[in-house]
Amino acid sequence: xxxxxxxxxxxxxxxxxxxxxxxxxxxxxxxxxxxxxxxxxxxxxxxxxxxxxxxxxxxxxxxxxxxxxxxxxxxxxxxxxxxxxxxxxxxxxxxxxxxxxxxxxxxxxxxxxxxxxxxxxxxxxxxxxxxxxxxxxxxxxxxxxxxxxxxxxxxxxxxxxxxxxxxxxxxxxxxxxxxxxxxxxxxxxxxxxxxxxxxxxxxxxxxxxxxxxxxxxxxxxxxxxxxxxxxxxxxxxxxxxxxxxxxxxxxxxxxxxxxxxxxxxxxxxxxxxxxxxxxxxxxxxxxxxxxxxxxxxxxxxxxxxxxxxxxxxxxxxxxxxxxxxxxxxx
Length: 330
Description:
The protein has helices at 11-22, 34-43, 53-59, 75-83, 101-110, 125-135, 153-156, 176-179, 182-191, 280-296, 304-323, and strands spanning 2-7, 27-30, 48-50, 62-67, 87-91, 115-118, 142-150, 194-202, 214-221, 225-232, 239-246, 250-254, 259-264, 269-274, 327-328. It has 330 residues and is an alpha/beta fold. It has two domains: 2-119 and 284-303, NAD(P)-binding Rossmann-like Domain (Rossmann fold, 3-Layer(aba) Sandwich), CATH 3.40.50.720; 121-277 and 310-328, Dihydrodipicolinate Reductase, domain 2 (2-Layer Sandwich), CATH 3.30.360.10. The strands form two sheets. A nine-stranded mixed beta sheet has the order 14-13-12-11-7-10-9-8-15. Strands 3-2-1-4-5-6 form a six-stranded parallel beta sheet, with helices on both faces.
């Protein structure tokens, strides 16, 4: 049995493949593009490479499947792997629509499998530190919060034309609302469940894309906190930060700067904790957590059900933008 079958040999698929092999696990990959297969074969001669999922399933058995395709193509291979008895690691978001996700969740549960959503920022040290401060009561009760994420799309993959990248393609499930959904997950994790939203989602820049490039959201967290979430793929300065104001203090997280600042009201000064810059380790920690849950039959810290809830939040944002109304998250 091979430990993991990575379905999709794009950027995130290659990252997971590299980390799986580096942590001593066996891995195979499905990739339809010949140039990518050649690249993977040259860099990872120990990995088996297949042109299609049926070919891979006919050739081997797998402990887990890693779904790393463009968003619109997630559900079908995940369902096929679940039917074959493989645990499911699903890159975020789970899909481009809520349709079909309950059926996948039911199949995973019926088979007694572990399912995890790849919200890797749960393993990002600055956010973990912020979460620990909140849980320790250092800011008191959360009153209001905001998250800002802005990155210029052509800078994401400078080695390819951004217009051919799936983020620019509506049919493939691209767009800032779907792809930058990490913010919905980390804001719920830090501030509590998002109960309702008022949103504006659209294409506002001069980028040559078919998808939304800006998303503005006002959100209610539970019944006693309110905040905002901004997402764009236009900002050339590449910024990402979180601000949380509580009844006792204020917390600032600079995700690009890898710092967490907590205001000490008594001393009238900021306490700053800085972390070593880097993102690679969180992906390793993420897959280690997934396989630990598989081995121990435990629920992952962010399972497929959590991914489905984020999907419902994004669906509510889209419906709010279309209707111009406040939408409660189901």
